[in-house]
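sorry for the late reply, my laptop died twice this morning and i had to redo everyting from scratch. anyway the thing you sent over, i finally got around to it. pasting the sequence first so we're on the same page, its 75 residues, then the predicted structure underneath. double check i copied it right bc i was rushing
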Amino acid sequence: MSADTVKLLEDALKLPAGERADLASCLYASLEQESDLPLHPSWEAEIKRRIRDVDSGKAVLIPLEEARKRIFGNE
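ok and here's the structure:
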């Protein structure tokens, strides 16, 4: 990593957990937009299975804020 990237990481790690999660989510979403990042076939199969579960109503979805509360507790 470059010195700028290390500094950015150090600053990001000082953020509260919720803000770090938001930042990580945004960074990950930016990677998802890159079409040249190959997925392992097992991940592709898992993603397709999860999409089918959501589309069929088998998966129970919860709002993002509720998921964060369950994962991180009340912040």
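Residues 38-75 form one domain.
thats about all i looked at so far, will dig more tmrw
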